[in-house]
Amino acid sequence: QVQLVESGGGLVQPGGSLRLSCAASGSIFRIDVMAWYRQAPGNQRELVASITSGDSTNYADSVKGRFTISRDNAKNTVFLQMNSLKPEVTAVHYCNLAVVTTAQRGVIYGYWGQGTQVTVSS
Asked: Across the chain, what does the average pLDDT equal?
């Protein structure tokens, strides 16, 4: 079993910053890609940023230069630093981790966090 716990969401004014965290625990052998997605009401879930085990990163065009994704492999944690926030970022943000468990080392499972609300408003 693998559990993901997200934290760091909240209400912030336009131009402000937030840092999201997603910590995984349980029977983890390895975590490959770590990613953040967001879903606004009435919209599909979309990729915000991802980072591979080799620290290669990928960002949605709308957040390039303002958001930074990073990971702490020792703590099985992924972060999303969000700066210069705009109202259109308002959404529930989810982490997604590609995990290899100790029980099934030949299989990669995708796990989702519970979601954390980010609201950008004055």
From this structure: 96
